[in-house]
Write a structure and sequence with these properties.
2 domains, Arc Repressor Mutant, subunit A, phosphoprotein, transcription, Sig_transdc_resp-reg_receiver, alpha/beta
Length: 229
Amino acid sequence: MDKAKILIVEDDDDIRLITSLYLEKKGFAVHAVENGAEAVEFVTKEEPELVLLDILLPGMKGYEVCKKMREITEKPIIFTSCKRTSEDKIEGLNAGGDDYLTKPYDLAELEARINANLRRSRFGFSRNEKILRVNDLLVDTEKYQVYKNEQEVKLYAKEYQLLLFLMKHKEQVFSAEQIYNQIWGLDMYGDLKTVSVHIRNLRKKIEDKPKEPRYIKTVRGFGYKFSGK
């Protein structure tokens, strides 16, 4: 099996070198750059399977880099940053990131997050049902496309996986922790705010009234469920 190609975008020389050497030792093919312009250029030409993206880069900041990358690729993007507030993490997820890891990070945890994101990106969910339809919402699981009122809705990879998971378990209530473990695949490292951010963003894209959702409903004290009523 070919080595997974990882792009590291980090302006700190020591962090870039240490992380690169560790991931190469673990069997990844690593390319490292120190600024956003180089990162976008590399993604355009090579499309790595996953990007580790620092936020506080010189020139173009990580959030802006992520948005530009999302015009090119849907591959997983993990933000790495010393910024650790909930607001910082939410901004990263809203920019199109799939995960967020605060510095200084443990290299073993980084590896676990990379593997989990790659696993989800590569294999997704079972595709036994080719078309899922609920009212005006349709998901084509072979083409990974979502339509509302016959108009395609552009979703990020994790948003798509989240919607598909909930639709396949219609009316079943899942806690934020259960959803995190299912979609992100990490039992011990998760920030559950990641789930609420993705739920909110998904509602904006598929609901007529995001604050009064028809499909993805909050079950207070328990979690979330998909409803087709």
